[in-house]
Amino acid sequence: MSDSPPEVEVSPAVARTAEDIGSMEIRGAATIAAAAAEALGEQAAGSDADSPEAFRAELRAAARVLYDTRPTAVSLPNALRYVLRDVEGETVERLRASVRASVSEFCRRLDNAQTDLGRVGANRLRDGDTIMTHCHSTDVLACVEAAVEQGKSLSAFVKETRPRNQGHITAEALGELGVDVTLIVDSAARRYLNDVDHVLVGADSIAADGSVINKIGTSGLAVNARDRGTPIVCAAQTIKLHPDTLTGHTVDIEMRDEREVVDRETAEEIGDPEVLNPAFDVTPPRYVDAIVTERGQFPPESIVSLMRELFGESTTEPWAEA
Fold this sequence. Notes:
Radius of gyration: 21 Å
CATH topology of the largest domain: Rossmann fold
CATH superfamily of the largest domain: Translation initiation factor eif-2b, domain 2
Number of helices: 11
CATH architecture of the largest domain: 3-Layer(aba) Sandwich
Strand content: 5-15%
Number of strands: 10
Strand order of the largest sheet: 3-2-1-4-7-9-10
Largest sheet: 7 strands, mixed
Oligomer: single chain
């Protein structure tokens, strides 16, 4: 007879959100974080738990399902940490109300964070500047939007960012802001860096030493930008800081499906080679000029102090509790 606890079923809302995050139907750190928090709220609202212990077990199970979808997108576990660590109450109804309040407060802070970050990042941009972007980042867009609202005219070279072409989303969004956009293939970045005033990238997570984990290709772009003397700025809300790295944990690099790169028929036509499709790479802090957050602008080496201020030294995950 097993002593392991019975498996806890999660709500359809949690399962659906996890599937959408895993398939990248839901993308972008802030969007992922909000979706995860709201899914926990729906789990709580629909719970039939008959005791506080059962209710908490349901929440932890839902958090584990959500957590397992995107190991590199640290905004997801940070959202789960925020919601679960603020849950208090001695009855199911009080716990349910606590979750609802925690989710609401988290989403409110999330909404304000991007606006505040945008204002900070806009201060780096001057009227007439040309930027270069990689992948799709709502934090980068917030900086550009704030600069445009200040009356600054900007132009942009946008890397298409294969294999999923997220740069197309960025190109459309920048065009809607009135930015003059030039879409380029990824391998053309170095050719146009001499015409660029700032490289602006987002982050999926940021390590304690100031390393930036972002869409594959960011590191190469940063090296080329440093060689050309073009400043590279990372725009990232504090929900993207990776507290586990304070204690020496490394960041997992997600490997995505080979079918994003080549379909099965084409693979067979070219000899069926092994296909590697890493989603992210790590840019060392020496290639990053500044990290812009809603709390201000920081040199990479100062991120560890901000991380300790926000998260302390503990990295115990509330969804891992017995």
